[in-house]
Write a structure and sequence with these properties.
The protein is of the alpha+beta class. It contains 3 helices and 2 strands, in the order ββααα. Strands 1-2 form a two-stranded antiparallel sheet. Helix 1 (17-23) crosses helix 2 (29-41) and helix 2 (29-41) crosses helix 3.
Length: 73
């Protein structure tokens, strides 16, 4: 979600726990908060935050379990 604050002339872009959980439903709420904190700490204005960046950071913070055999899930 993004909005422009007419009073301060600032564009504000918000990402929340639900956004992280949409990308990684295997995480719990606390882990999703940790992903958001990591995104804030490593923020790069040249890249920004988008779905792919959230997915990459979530994978860095909480690697998904690897499947042992193709087709396992």
């Amino acid at each position: 979600m993004a909005f422009y604050d007419e009073k301060t002339h600032i564009l504000i872009i918000k990402w929340n726990v639900e956004d992280v959980l949409n990308v990684r439903p295997d995480l719990n709420e606390e882990e999703a908060k940790e992903v958001l904190c990591a995104l804030a700490n490593d923020f790069d204005a040249n890249i920004g935050v988008n779905w792919a960046v959230i997915e990459i950071m979530a994978e860095e913070e909480f690697p998904e379990a690897q499947q042992l055999f193709p087709g396992d899930g």
